């Protein structure tokens, strides 16, 4: 029987420990100290011990359970080494917490790139939004809303030719295009807030809401500090999909309004263009490529950590093994090999398809307006731009920053 004297040490109550992830064929868990925001990885065996350091379970009980689970003893030296590491990080209750790193110098805001925080307390802002829109999490709202979205998509397909014609008129009118683009930009901001509100609903913490720009792109962002520590994969996938759902909900009143307006009404073309381009925007977010929401939904549903960069390293090691170099794929179990090779092949095919379609469209448009030479140049530029976004993100060694996401956000 465990007694107060025999009880082992305890991990601080505020320490966050994630579920299991797969990274490069290895199962890992994440540990986060909210005091300084630092996150590090531990293996399955370290996690087994860590979650049992509750201040009640004795060392003998933990060692016995460890032996039953892994078929080997946790010796005194390994025990002391693990406790020493945890204590040095300030994770053990009663141990001094290491001094936090000095806050980084404020990032210089340049004309071409930078960021700006919009609210002083992102957590309070998100909590207020959650109170205001908390009804959207109820079944009586979600079920009819999803049915309405399906009906809207069916209506768009039915009226597709007329909507496409209105969209073409918008694209030919710079002022109309600017108006629709501005409305779409606003929906992108609401998209980001949707991520934050849903994360808050599941117990996540929104650390910052602001605007980031890398001219000519200016976007809103919502940084969720502990997104990867949400309790279940379902909560993570739901949080990742929240922005797309917000985009579709915002489009619901557009189709009825478009149908009610006369065909020659200028506002009808604006609504038609907004509908088609808004759906295109939602479809773009669904792409299973980083940093899109579809990629995050796929990665979290499979429990993968840095899925895209891990797939590239997997391919790199496979190619190196064919050439007789490197350790090969010995560290990858069968499920990991299927997951990584499947994503590598699928994402490559998707990228090639997208670049090809964009190049063909650019060539046709430019040829129609300026001739075949301009068409060829436009197609070449489209391919080069596609390579610019893909090739710099490719890394077989892991030495470059992966494209899977920025720290602290919805892997975004």
Structural write-up:
- The protein has 412 residues and is an alpha+beta fold.
- It folds into 3 domains: 16-88; 109-286, no CATH class; 299-412, no CATH class.
- Helix content is 57%, strand content 10%.
- It is built from 14 helices and 7 strands.
- It has helices spanning 44-50, 59-70, 76-88, 122-133, 139-158, 160-172, 174-201, 233-251, 254-260, 266-285, 293-302, 307-322, 334-370, 372-390, and strands at 16-17, 21-23, 26-33, 38-43, 113-117, 206-214, 217-224.
- The strands form 2 sheets. Strands 1, 2, 3 and 4 form a 4-stranded antiparallel beta sheet that branches.
- Helix 7 packs antiparallel against helix 8 (233-251), helix 12 (307-322) packs across helix 13 and helix 13 (334-370) packs antiparallel against helix 14 (372-390).
- It starts with 15 loop residues before the first strand and ends in a 22-residue tail after the last helix.
- 26% of the residues are buried.
- Residues 1-5, 392-403 and 405-412 have low confidence and may be disordered.
List the helices and strands and how they pair.
Layout: E1 16-17, E2 21-23, E3 26-33, E4 38-43, H1 44-50, H2 59-70, H3 76-88, E5 113-117, H4 122-133, H5 139-158, H6 160-172, H7 174-201, E6 206-214, E7 217-224, H8 233-251, H9 254-260, H10 266-285, H11 293-302, H12 307-322, H13 334-370, H14 372-390
Antiparallel strand pairs: 1-3, 2-3, 3-4, 5-6, 6-7
Helix pairs in contact: 4-7, 6-10, 7-8, 7-10, 8-10, 8-11, 9-10, 12-13, 13-14
What fraction of the residues are assigned to beta strands by DSSP? 5-15%
* Number of helices, where a helix is a run of at least 4 consecutive DSSP H or I residues: 14
Low-confidence stretches: 1-5, 392-403, 405-412
Number of strands: 7
Structural class: alpha+beta
What's the structural domain tally?
3
- The ordered H/E elements are EEEEHHHEHHHHEEHHHHHHH
Shape: globular
Helix share, percent: 55-70%
Mean pLDDT: 86
Distance between the terminal alpha carbons, to the nearest Å? Answer: 48 Å
The biggest beta sheet, please?
A: 4 strands, antiparallel
Rounded Rg: 26 Å
């Amino acid at each position: 029987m465990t007694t107060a004297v025999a009880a082992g040490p305890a991990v601080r109550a505020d320490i966050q420990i994630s579920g299991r992830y797969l990274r490069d064929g290895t199962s890992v868990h994440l540990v986060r100290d909210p005091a300084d925001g630092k996150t590090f990885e531990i293996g399955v065996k370290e996690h087994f011990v860590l979650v049992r350091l509750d201040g009640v379970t004795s060392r003998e009980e933990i060692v016995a359970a460890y032996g039953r689970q892994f078929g080997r003893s946790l010796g005194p030296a390994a025990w002391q080494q693990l406790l020493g590491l945890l204590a040095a990080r300030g994770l053990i209750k009663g141990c001094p917490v290491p001094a936090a790193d000095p806050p980084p110098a404020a990032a210089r805001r340049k004309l071409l790139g930078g960021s700006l925080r919009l609210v002083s307390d992102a957590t309070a802002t998100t909590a207020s939004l959650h109170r205001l829109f908390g009804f959207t999490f109820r079944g009586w709202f979600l079920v009819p809303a999803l049915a309405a979205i399906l009906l809207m998509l069916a209506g768009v397909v039915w009226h597709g030719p007329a909507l496409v014609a209105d969209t073409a008129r918008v694209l030919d009118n710079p002022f109309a295009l600017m108006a629709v683009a501005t409305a779409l930009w606003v929906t992108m901001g609401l998209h980001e807030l949707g991520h934050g509100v849903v994360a808050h609903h599941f117990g996540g913490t929104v650390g910052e809401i602001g605007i980031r720009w890398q001219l000519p792109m200016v976007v809103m962002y919502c940084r969720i500090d502990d997104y990867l520590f949400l309790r279940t994969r379902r909560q993570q996938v739901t949080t990742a999909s929240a922005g797309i759902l917000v985009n579709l909900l915002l489009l619901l009143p557009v189709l009825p309004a478009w149908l009610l307006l006369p065909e020659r009404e200028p506002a009808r073309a604006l609504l038609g263009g907004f509908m088609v381009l808004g759906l295109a925007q939602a479809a773009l977010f669904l792409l299973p490529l980083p940093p899109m929401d579809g990629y995050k939904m796929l990665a979290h549903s499979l429990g993968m950590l840095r899925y895209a960069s891990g797939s590239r390293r997997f391919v790199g090691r496979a190619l190196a093994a064919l050439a007789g170099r490197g350790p090969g794929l010995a560290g990858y179990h069968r499920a990991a090999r299927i997951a990584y090779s499947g994503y590598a092949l699928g994402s490559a095919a998707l990228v090639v398809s997208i670049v090809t379609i964009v190049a063909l469209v650019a060539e046709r448009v430019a040829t129609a307006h300026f001739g075949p030479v301009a068409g060829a140049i436009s197609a070449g530029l489209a391919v080069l731009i596609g390579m610019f976004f893909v090739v710099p993100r490719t890394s077989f060694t892991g030495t470059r920053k992966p494209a899977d996401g920025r720290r602290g956000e919805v892997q975004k």
